[in-house]
């Protein structure tokens, strides 16, 4: 019988396992550059001038024992060629024997020096140097291969995960498929959209080959990967269309069925139709190809999703809530604490949606267990990923600084702290004042404090594991934890935490037989990767089509209808706020940043809005957009992780208009007020 660790489903063998290997390869390739830097430094410390020993020295071809007298005589006897145009122009010039001798003596001296250097290097090429050099050059080749393979890894990862999301019905939509009509409409439109993606990629490949510019083998291979991927995606949706699952009810309305269509499908149909109408059928393929220009960024998104899913497999979130449980906080205050505490992991998981997917279910269940009403728990879960996007080392801020030379990460993160304080204060005030339904009867400090301190003890080993990994990278590889190294450090940290939990929980399981829910390290990593695969497919495909929608906005010249500069920064800011919130409602964050950089940002700068101020407004406006109907991406992700039943149960609860829609209205009030303050208060100090 096969070991339990190898009992995988077919989807795990052909989807999750390859995705896990690809993500590990990304971590390995990115870490290998740090290892290589240290190897070069180590080689220089062990063998002075190691950089000269990295290649076998070439033996000089000159003669170090050349007879100087004979060489001088030979040179003096040599006449200029008859057909030398310079000689005909300048006339005959007598050679000075002293100058000839000096030149030959210098060449002989240089030759002897080259031979001496060659002999010295040959003497230093010991067996130890050659062995060390072989390893160092292998790592260098690995880095070069990793850099060249980034684009291919990204394409394979996106298409592999997109097919998985299609087969598992995991794409992000306004509502879940509940009836057969929902299923038929959704899968039919998915198939059409996927076929449109395939056709656009084929046309893009043909137009590239037909152009006068030579196409490299790497570019052609990339085209083929896209075509094969979209072909598989089309077949997957077609298979799903005719393989109707059990459990779907009959009936349904066409309007609700259209809400079950994934957002990426809607974006694809809109952009594909537009590009076809203007005679630019390869448009979607071209804009998806632009993802390759930022392949490392999109791979980091995949790593952050994996980190979030591994976080979901740990007990960290539950242990953190245990610290606050002894205080017997009212649900409203506990919701505030949950959102504030979630800001830090949100910053380290790259974007708000990723954290909602990773920890949303735990936050919701803990708030419900503490007595929070469904609407309050749903609102807090949706907002749990909103406040930390302005804190270091959030990937979104790094992307903004990468695309815009007018700002730096230090400037954005420096002001981001103050924006975080503002948004946290606004949410806290709204949560504890509007629709408060409980009394603030906290437990006595004398009772709560000792229990809370005691609850901190299980967290200490986790902190030590994190510190150990960070110190290893700092001391061994000279890599400090920051926004640039976080994507490659965080997966290692989470893997180390899972290893720690494996041994600690296994020991506890052996001692008490009480931790029966724990299935082992391999199962935890496999579960995290299974979740990751579907989420990466849903998120990155949505992100790619967001870039395509950005292309529609760019090519339709909508932005040219607006003035390219305003006389008043106040008027410009008002327009910016409206545009940015709308973009946040219809586009993914990374795709929206690319579009804003190319269009809206230049108008803001020309109108006298400070770049740092503009991007702080952009981040808050995006978060408000993710919480705003009709799309409300963070609410869609919340529903995806807590389950459709909980959302439906919340919608059936009675009360006032605010109470019936609290999960939507509360975040809008908090982030709306914050956006107004962030957008217009700074103008009082620098605008004309």
The termini sit apart by 78 Å
Radius of gyration: 32 Å
Number of helices: 31
β-strand amount: under 5%
Described by the principal axes of the CA atoms, the overall outline is: globular
**Number of DSSP strand runs:** 0
What tags apply to this protein structure?
688 residues; mainly alpha; 31 helices; disordered N terminus
Care to describe what's here?
By secondary structure, the protein is mainly alpha-helical. The chain is built from 31 helices and no strands. It is globular, with a radius of gyration of 32 Å.
Summarize, please.
The protein is mainly alpha-helical and 688 residues long. 74% of the residues lie in helices and 0% in strands.
What are the SSEs and their pairings?
Blueprint: H1 10-46, H2 50-53, H3 68-77, H4 85-90, H5 97-124, H6 127-167, H7 180-210, H8 217-242, H9 254-259, H10 263-277, H11 283-289, H12 295-313, H13 316-324, H14 331-348, H15 352-369, H16 374-383, H17 395-403, H18 409-433, H19 445-456, H20 460-476, H21 486-512, H22 521-555, H23 569-586, H24 589-598, H25 600-606, H26 611-626, H27 633-642, H28 644-651, H29 657-660, H30 662-680, H31 683-686
Helix pairs in contact: 1-6, 1-21, 1-22, 3-5, 6-8, 6-12, 6-22, 7-8, 7-10, 7-11, 10-22, 11-22, 12-15, 12-21, 12-22, 13-19, 14-15, 14-16, 14-18, 15-16, 15-27, 16-27, 16-30, 17-24, 18-26, 18-30, 20-21, 22-24, 23-26, 26-30
